[in-house]
Each structure stands twice: as C-alpha cells, then as structure tokens.
Specification:
With about 425 residues, the chain is an alpha/beta fold. Helix content is about 35%, strand content about 25%. It contains 13 helices and 18 strands. Strands 6-9-10-11-12-13 form a six-stranded parallel sheet. A five-stranded parallel sheet has the order 2-1-3-4-5, with helices on both faces. Strand 12, helix 12 and strand 13 form a beta-alpha-beta unit. The longest helix has 24 residues. It binds iron/sulfur cluster. Iron/sulfur cluster binds next to helix 5.
Amino acid sequence: MRTKTLRKNKINVITLGCSKNLYDSEVLMGQLKANEIEAEHESTKDDANIVVINTCGFIDNAKEESIETILRFAQAKEDGLVEKVFVTGCLSERYKPDLEKEIPNVDEYFGTRDLPRLLKVLGADYKHELVGERLLTTPSHYAYFKISEGCDRPCSFCAIPLMRGKHVSTPIEELVDSAKKLAAKGVKELMLIAQDSTYYGIDLYGKRRLADLLTELCKVEGIEWIRLHYAFPAGFPEDVLDVMANEPKICKYLDMPLQHIADPVLKSMRRGTTKEKTDRLLNLLKERVPGIALRTTLIVGYPGETEEDFQVLLDWVKETRFDRLGVFTYSHEENTHAFALEDDVPEAEKQRRAELVMEVQQEISLQKNQELIGRTLKVLIDRVEGDNFVGRTEYDSVEVDNEVLIPAKDNYLRIGDFVNVEVTDAEHFDLHGKFVS
Ligand code: SF4
C-alpha cells in the first residue's frame, strides 16, 4: 500500500450541489481559519490529510454524484492517501443511517445543522462571533449571500424542507454587517440566495421584509450590484418591485423558479398559484421594473403530466419569452408528497420534453441577444479565458446565464472591474463585444 506524506491537519473541503451549500462550505472554512486550521476548497494538490465532503441530496443525479464522491474518498482513505473522511450536507442529513451502513469507511456523517459538532471533530471550536464571516471560494468581486435557511413551502416534488428544515431568516442587522465586511474585502456584487427569498422576514418579523432588507443593503458602500434569486410566485411582495425599480444597485434581474404552468400540474405540485395568477405577476414585474430580465426553472415529466399539459407549458414558454430559462426532468423523491403518485412519464419522454423546451428557449435567447447588437452595456469582468475577457451584464447571474466575451488582445481590463462594452455579435447564450470605456 503506497502512503503519502500528508500535511498535518490540512483539510480539503469538497462542495457539491447549490450555491447555498457553497455558502455553508465557506462558513465552515472561515471557522477553521479562525481556529488556525489550514483548509482549502477542492484542493487538487492531494496533500490534505482530512477531507470534508459537503453533499447534495436534491434529486437523483445530484445524489449519485455525492455518493460517487464519498466512495472516491473512502477508497483514497483505504489507499492511505487521506487519513480521515467526514461527510456533511443534504445527502448526509437525509440518508445518514443508510450511508453509515452502506459506506462505513467514512469517519462520521453530519447533518446540515451540525456545524459546531463537525468543527469539534476537526479540532476546532465554533466561534459565534464569526457569524456571517466566511472564506470566499468565489472570485473576490462577488459573493453568494444567504439571507435565510430552510423552507415552509409544501411543494409536492421537493425534498429540500426535509434536508434544510423550516424557514429561518437571518436578522437584517446581521446581514448588513456581513455585507459591510464583504465590501471591505472588495466584494462588489451580492448574489442573494435562499430556498425562498420572497418569504424573508415572515418568521422573524411576522411580515415579509425583503424590500426593507434590499433597501438597507443598498446603503452599503462598495456594493454595486445586488442580485435576487429564488423568488417564489405565490404571495410575491410587490413592495420589492418599487425597490428594484428605484435603486440602481439592484440588478434588473429576477430568478423565480415557476416549475410549471398547466393548472392541473400546478395544483398537484401544491404551488399555491395558477396560470392566470402567474401571468398576471409576470406582467406586473415587466410593468413595474422596465427592462427586467426574468429567469425561471421548469420541471417536465411530473407524475400525471399529460401531453396536453406539456403542450400548454411549451406554448407558454414560446409566448412568455423568458430571458433565461432552465429545465429539469422530474425526479421521484422519497418522503416527498409526490412520491405517493405514480412516476408515470417514462424517462425517455421526460428527456424529450426537456429537450423540446430548451430548443424553443435557445431560439428565444438568440433573438433576444441579437436585439442587443449595437447597444453599450455595463459589464462586470469575471475572468480571462483563452483569448477573451469574460464578463456579465446586470441581466446575467454567474454560472447559469449568458456571458460577454471581449477580446483580450489590445484591451487591458482587470478582473472585478465594471467596464462599458458595445455588443458586436450574439450567439445563443453568449454575447461578443468590444471595450468602450
Ligand atoms: S419553495 Fe418549494 S421548491 Fe423551493 S425549496 Fe421550498 S419546497 Fe422546495
């Protein structure tokens, strides 16, 4: 058995799944750093003696990826390449007893609310005074900004409340304080995330206070863009629209997963809304926040989704012309309300429906991008890739939306800078541009 000289107490943190999981890994690493324990995020150096895997347990593909990662590091431990493997996050929260039986070579499994206990076995003490502080894994000019944890919604297909618990808002003062600390570190863009950002405040203040939170965050010097993700359609707080319309720092962008539009499916999904109400809300958003870019996410192949339901969805995607859209195939998740239904849409048919939706969307995206040719847009430079600087407009979130490519030759731009770019060409999901100022 080949052994390696491992760096004493160096921890390699692996994150799977969504931006909320990444946020949690950053908090863990911030705590470890404050305890003078060396930690690295997804280190490729393979010199860490301890590995912490922050897993995702959302849907089939994500669960498979998490299990494969656990098995890979359990094998590495077997081979003497690492000394200890710890697993945390959603998959561990949801399937701990099964995982302990199936993959016993892991030192310990932790849930999503076990940070102090996890820190203990890593030789660290949980430092309450560090609340909100973390070690960023994103480029230093933007940061994910989690405003609440958990979810109180009853969506039939969703296992997240099983893994993340009830909705808990973080107090406005704590969030403003965190934003100030991030701005002091050079963060210019806050990506507001939650399971349901529009529910913010109900648990803590007895009413929705997302608009108040946004207004306070806009006062933080150094923060230039604030981007809203994971809005929920039912009970949408309209006062947020005034803040979005009047505050230049709030990106004219809204991510609102709608999941479906056919009324029978929305009813079975327990989404608490209808096609008529959803369309009314979308029109209100466009009316009250002119130029807003709308992102949504849809699920196809939900139990009982008929060809007719799907056609209603497809026609609606054609009519509504979302700026950004993603689609998932339904995943039959134990202990969710929908698990009692028959998963009657064959996998191949689910895939066919997803492809049809994206075929329609990519044409819409191309047409909308072509309409931008000749316009000058404010772009935040994220990185250099090959011959290009790569950036985003205020209409694009990281990793999921369009990007702007600016030739690196003859341009000296800095990562993290805002620049003005004239759009010279367009592709389905990217823009090409030239630096103006
Ligand atoms: S809003 Fe619905 S889909 Fe989103 S996390 Fe909550 S239960 Fe899941």
